[in-house]
Design goal:
There is one protein chain. By secondary structure, the chain is an alpha+beta fold. The protein has 3 helices and 7 strands. The protein has one domain: NE0471-like N-terminal domain (NE0471 N-terminal domain-like, 2-Layer Sandwich). The strands form 2 sheets. It has a 4-stranded antiparallel beta sheet.
């Protein structure tokens, strides 16, 4: 499945991301299952988690942690 282009990501409480897709779709993604181990475990720091940004076709944190675009879309819930 070809997902729409991600155009925004806003950190939310409880390690969730509010994702905005073009042209006008909003979805909520739970990052908490990913927060383990040395690499993704850094996301447990809320200040660091809040530095998320959209890069290319996904979201990314300053040290390079990212989540596959298809996972972001397919495993998120629509927000109405």
């Amino acid at each position: 499945m070809l997902q729409p282009q991600i155009i925004g990501a806003e950190p939310m409480p409880c390690y969730r991301l509010l994702l905005r897709y073009a042209p006008n779709e909003v979805r909520l993604f739970d990052v908490s299952p990913y927060i383990k181990g040395d690499w993704y475990g850094k996301l447990i720091d809320v200040q660091y988690f809040n530095t998320v940004r959209v890069t290319r076709s996904t979201v990314e944190w300053p040290e390079g942690q990212d989540i596959a675009p298809h996972e972001l879309y397919e495993m998120s819930e629509p927000v109405t």
